[in-house]
Design goal:
three-stranded mixed β-sheet, single chain, 2 domains, 257 residues, ten-stranded mixed β-sheet, Jelly Rolls, binds fe (ii) ion, mainly beta, 5 helices, GMP Synthetase, Chain A, domain 3
Length: 257
Amino acid sequence: MGITAKEEGWKLDEITVEIDKEMTTQGARKIKSLSLQIKMPVELKEDQLQVLQKATRDCPVLRSLNNSIQIKVKWNQAQKKKHTTLNFVPTHVFRETPQVTFFDAGVKGSNGSDVVIHHGSALSPPNDDDFEQYYVHHHQIDHNLVLDGSRTFTLLNPEWDEPHHVIYLNQKMGALQIPIGTYHRSVSGPDGSMVLNQAVRDSDFDSSKEFIPVSLRERPDLVAAKAVDPIYWIWEGDQLKRTKLNSLLVKTQQIET
Ligand SMILES: [Fe+2]
Protein backbone atom coordinates (compact mmCIF):
# COMPACT_ATOMS: atom_id res chain seq x y z
CA MET A 1 0.00 0.00 0.00
CA GLY A 2 2.88 2.33 0.87
CA ILE A 3 4.60 1.65 -2.47
CA THR A 4 1.39 2.33 -4.43
CA ALA A 5 0.73 5.58 -2.51
CA LYS A 6 4.28 6.72 -3.23
CA GLU A 7 3.93 5.93 -6.94
CA GLU A 8 0.66 7.87 -7.08
CA GLY A 9 2.15 10.78 -5.13
CA TRP A 10 -0.38 10.46 -2.32
CA LYS A 11 0.53 11.40 1.21
CA LEU A 12 -0.84 8.91 3.71
CA ASP A 13 -1.27 10.18 7.21
CA GLU A 14 -2.08 7.91 10.10
CA ILE A 15 -3.23 4.42 9.21
CA THR A 16 -4.09 2.12 12.11
CA VAL A 17 -4.38 -1.66 11.95
CA GLU A 18 -5.96 -3.76 14.67
CA ILE A 19 -5.14 -7.45 14.47
CA ASP A 20 -6.99 -10.30 16.18
CA LYS A 21 -5.61 -13.82 15.94
CA GLU A 22 -7.44 -17.10 16.31
CA MET A 23 -5.45 -20.20 17.30
CA THR A 24 -6.11 -23.77 16.20
CA THR A 25 -7.86 -25.97 18.76
CA GLN A 26 -6.73 -29.33 17.38
CA GLY A 27 -3.31 -30.74 16.44
CA ALA A 28 -0.13 -28.68 16.76
CA ARG A 29 -0.86 -25.23 18.13
CA LYS A 30 -0.59 -22.62 15.42
CA ILE A 31 -2.37 -19.53 14.12
CA LYS A 32 -5.58 -20.44 12.31
CA SER A 33 -6.71 -17.00 11.19
CA LEU A 34 -5.93 -13.29 11.44
CA SER A 35 -8.57 -10.56 11.36
CA LEU A 36 -7.26 -7.17 10.30
CA GLN A 37 -9.24 -3.96 10.86
CA ILE A 38 -7.58 -1.25 8.79
CA LYS A 39 -8.56 2.35 9.51
CA MET A 40 -7.67 4.71 6.66
CA PRO A 41 -7.22 8.52 6.86
CA VAL A 42 -10.35 10.64 6.50
CA GLU A 43 -8.91 12.68 3.59
CA LEU A 44 -8.80 9.79 1.09
CA LYS A 45 -11.42 9.75 -1.66
CA GLU A 46 -13.35 6.63 -2.68
CA ASP A 47 -11.31 5.99 -5.85
CA GLN A 48 -8.04 6.32 -3.90
CA LEU A 49 -9.30 3.84 -1.29
CA GLN A 50 -10.18 1.36 -4.02
CA VAL A 51 -6.69 1.59 -5.55
CA LEU A 52 -5.05 1.03 -2.14
CA GLN A 53 -7.39 -1.86 -1.29
CA LYS A 54 -6.50 -3.53 -4.60
CA ALA A 55 -2.79 -3.04 -3.84
CA THR A 56 -3.32 -4.82 -0.52
CA ARG A 57 -5.15 -7.73 -2.18
CA ASP A 58 -2.32 -8.08 -4.72
CA CYS A 59 0.39 -7.93 -2.04
CA PRO A 60 2.72 -10.97 -2.44
CA VAL A 61 3.24 -11.22 1.34
CA LEU A 62 -0.51 -11.46 1.95
CA ARG A 63 -0.89 -13.97 -0.89
CA SER A 64 1.90 -16.17 0.54
CA LEU A 65 0.47 -16.06 4.07
CA ASN A 66 -3.03 -16.83 2.79
CA ASN A 67 -1.82 -20.32 1.80
CA SER A 68 -1.26 -21.25 5.44
CA ILE A 69 -3.36 -18.77 7.48
CA GLN A 70 -6.81 -17.47 6.76
CA ILE A 71 -6.65 -13.67 6.64
CA LYS A 72 -9.78 -11.53 6.84
CA VAL A 73 -9.47 -7.81 6.14
CA LYS A 74 -12.05 -5.16 7.12
CA TRP A 75 -11.68 -1.57 5.98
CA ASN A 76 -12.82 1.53 7.84
CA GLN A 77 -12.23 5.18 7.29
CA ALA A 78 -11.60 7.58 10.15
CA GLN A 79 -14.57 9.83 10.82
CA LYS A 80 -14.25 13.52 10.15
CA LYS A 81 -13.94 15.41 13.45
CA LYS A 82 -16.96 17.44 14.49
CA HIS A 83 -16.53 21.19 14.60
CA THR A 84 -17.89 22.01 17.99
CA THR A 85 -18.52 25.15 19.92
CA LEU A 86 -19.79 25.30 23.44
CA ASN A 87 -23.15 26.74 24.40
CA PHE A 88 -23.88 28.79 27.46
CA VAL A 89 -27.54 29.26 28.37
CA PRO A 90 -27.80 32.89 29.51
CA THR A 91 -29.42 33.87 32.76
CA HIS A 92 -31.86 36.73 32.73
CA VAL A 93 -31.39 39.22 35.54
CA PHE A 94 -34.79 40.79 36.08
CA ARG A 95 -34.25 42.73 39.25
CA GLU A 96 -31.27 44.10 41.10
CA THR A 97 -31.38 46.01 44.35
CA PRO A 98 -28.37 46.94 46.51
CA GLN A 99 -26.50 43.70 47.24
CA VAL A 100 -29.38 41.60 45.88
CA THR A 101 -29.78 40.06 42.40
CA PHE A 102 -32.83 38.21 41.13
CA PHE A 103 -32.37 36.16 38.00
CA ASP A 104 -34.22 33.60 35.95
CA ALA A 105 -32.14 30.42 35.90
CA GLY A 106 -34.49 28.25 33.83
CA VAL A 107 -33.20 25.87 31.15
CA LYS A 108 -35.70 24.80 28.49
CA GLY A 109 -36.45 21.07 28.61
CA SER A 110 -34.70 20.46 31.92
CA ASN A 111 -36.18 17.45 33.71
CA GLY A 112 -33.60 16.87 36.44
CA SER A 113 -31.62 19.17 38.67
CA ASP A 114 -28.97 18.85 41.32
CA VAL A 115 -26.85 21.23 43.34
CA VAL A 116 -23.18 20.40 43.81
CA ILE A 117 -21.36 22.26 46.57
CA HIS A 118 -17.58 22.27 46.76
CA HIS A 119 -16.41 23.09 50.27
CA GLY A 120 -12.97 24.51 49.54
CA SER A 121 -10.79 23.42 46.64
CA ALA A 122 -12.68 20.21 45.88
CA LEU A 123 -12.32 18.15 42.73
CA SER A 124 -15.04 16.13 41.08
CA PRO A 125 -14.62 13.37 40.27
CA PRO A 126 -11.56 12.75 42.48
CA ASN A 127 -8.31 11.41 41.00
CA ASP A 128 -7.52 7.74 40.57
CA ASP A 129 -4.04 7.85 42.21
CA ASP A 130 -2.02 9.98 39.77
CA PHE A 131 -4.61 9.75 37.01
CA GLU A 132 -7.39 12.26 36.44
CA GLN A 133 -10.94 10.98 36.29
CA TYR A 134 -13.85 12.33 34.28
CA TYR A 135 -17.61 11.95 34.16
CA VAL A 136 -19.33 11.28 30.86
CA HIS A 137 -23.06 11.08 30.19
CA HIS A 138 -24.84 9.09 27.51
CA HIS A 139 -28.43 10.11 28.25
CA GLN A 140 -28.05 13.47 29.98
CA ILE A 141 -27.06 16.95 28.81
CA ASP A 142 -25.69 19.01 31.70
CA HIS A 143 -26.32 22.73 32.15
CA ASN A 144 -24.04 23.90 34.93
CA LEU A 145 -24.76 27.30 36.42
CA VAL A 146 -22.49 28.71 39.10
CA LEU A 147 -24.56 30.15 41.94
CA ASP A 148 -21.65 31.12 44.14
CA GLY A 149 -17.89 31.38 43.64
CA SER A 150 -16.23 30.08 40.48
CA ARG A 151 -15.59 26.63 39.12
CA THR A 152 -13.05 25.52 36.52
CA PHE A 153 -14.32 22.83 34.15
CA THR A 154 -12.13 20.72 31.89
CA LEU A 155 -13.89 19.13 28.92
CA LEU A 156 -12.42 16.43 26.67
CA ASN A 157 -14.06 15.04 23.55
CA PRO A 158 -11.89 13.05 21.11
CA GLU A 159 -14.59 13.41 18.40
CA TRP A 160 -14.19 17.19 18.27
CA ASP A 161 -11.70 19.02 16.08
CA GLU A 162 -10.79 20.98 19.22
CA PRO A 163 -10.91 18.19 21.80
CA HIS A 164 -9.73 20.05 24.93
CA HIS A 165 -11.50 22.97 26.64
CA VAL A 166 -10.92 24.75 29.95
CA ILE A 167 -13.79 26.92 31.18
CA TYR A 168 -13.40 29.38 34.05
CA LEU A 169 -17.10 29.42 34.83
CA ASN A 170 -18.81 32.10 36.83
CA GLN A 171 -22.43 33.05 37.30
CA LYS A 172 -22.45 35.75 34.62
CA MET A 173 -21.45 33.28 31.88
CA GLY A 174 -24.77 31.44 32.24
CA ALA A 175 -25.22 27.69 32.34
CA LEU A 176 -22.45 25.71 30.62
CA GLN A 177 -24.01 23.07 28.40
CA ILE A 178 -22.04 19.82 28.32
CA PRO A 179 -23.04 17.69 25.32
CA ILE A 180 -23.58 13.94 25.52
CA GLY A 181 -20.33 11.95 25.17
CA THR A 182 -18.16 14.78 26.51
CA TYR A 183 -15.81 13.88 29.38
CA HIS A 184 -15.82 16.49 32.12
CA ARG A 185 -14.41 17.29 35.53
CA SER A 186 -14.40 20.41 37.69
CA VAL A 187 -12.36 21.99 40.44
CA SER A 188 -12.96 24.91 42.81
CA GLY A 189 -10.59 27.42 44.31
CA PRO A 190 -9.90 27.57 48.07
CA ASP A 191 -13.20 29.39 48.69
CA GLY A 192 -15.26 26.58 47.16
CA SER A 193 -18.29 27.04 44.90
CA MET A 194 -21.92 26.13 44.46
CA VAL A 195 -23.23 24.89 41.10
CA LEU A 196 -26.77 24.18 39.96
CA ASN A 197 -26.96 21.56 37.22
CA GLN A 198 -30.23 21.58 35.28
CA ALA A 199 -30.04 18.44 33.23
CA VAL A 200 -32.00 17.34 30.19
CA ARG A 201 -32.37 13.55 30.44
CA ASP A 202 -33.76 11.22 27.81
CA SER A 203 -35.97 8.19 28.47
CA ASP A 204 -32.95 5.82 28.74
CA PHE A 205 -31.38 7.78 31.59
CA ASP A 206 -30.24 5.49 34.42
CA SER A 207 -28.58 7.17 37.39
CA SER A 208 -26.62 4.00 38.23
CA LYS A 209 -24.80 4.22 34.86
CA GLU A 210 -24.41 7.97 34.30
CA PHE A 211 -22.04 8.86 37.12
CA ILE A 212 -19.27 6.29 36.85
CA PRO A 213 -15.87 8.07 36.77
CA VAL A 214 -13.60 7.24 33.82
CA SER A 215 -9.88 7.19 34.60
CA LEU A 216 -7.21 8.37 32.16
CA ARG A 217 -5.28 5.27 33.31
CA GLU A 218 -6.94 3.13 30.64
CA ARG A 219 -7.93 5.76 28.06
CA PRO A 220 -5.08 6.73 25.70
CA ASP A 221 -7.60 8.54 23.46
CA LEU A 222 -8.46 10.91 26.33
CA VAL A 223 -4.79 11.35 27.22
CA ALA A 224 -4.20 12.37 23.58
CA ALA A 225 -7.15 14.80 23.71
CA LYS A 226 -5.79 16.35 26.92
CA ALA A 227 -2.35 16.77 25.32
CA VAL A 228 -3.82 19.15 22.70
CA ASP A 229 -3.48 22.85 23.59
CA PRO A 230 -6.79 23.78 25.24
CA ILE A 231 -9.33 26.39 24.26
CA TYR A 232 -9.85 28.68 27.28
CA TRP A 233 -13.27 30.20 27.96
CA ILE A 234 -13.12 33.25 30.20
CA TRP A 235 -15.27 36.14 31.35
CA GLU A 236 -13.59 39.43 30.62
CA GLY A 237 -14.94 42.97 30.34
CA ASP A 238 -18.51 41.71 30.83
CA GLN A 239 -18.19 39.39 27.83
CA LEU A 240 -17.62 35.72 27.19
CA LYS A 241 -14.37 35.15 25.37
CA ARG A 242 -12.74 32.14 23.84
CA THR A 243 -8.96 32.23 23.91
CA LYS A 244 -6.27 29.98 22.56
CA LEU A 245 -2.78 30.26 23.94
CA ASN A 246 0.46 28.87 22.66
CA SER A 247 4.05 29.69 23.43
CA LEU A 248 4.45 32.23 20.63
CA LEU A 249 1.06 33.73 20.12
CA VAL A 250 -1.95 34.85 22.05
CA LYS A 251 -5.12 35.13 20.03
CA THR A 252 -8.36 36.31 21.48
CA GLN A 253 -11.59 36.01 19.62
CA GLN A 254 -14.66 37.69 20.90
CA ILE A 255 -17.66 35.46 20.94
CA GLU A 256 -20.85 36.66 19.37
CA THR A 257 -23.60 36.13 21.85
FE1 LIG B 1 -22.05 15.81 34.52
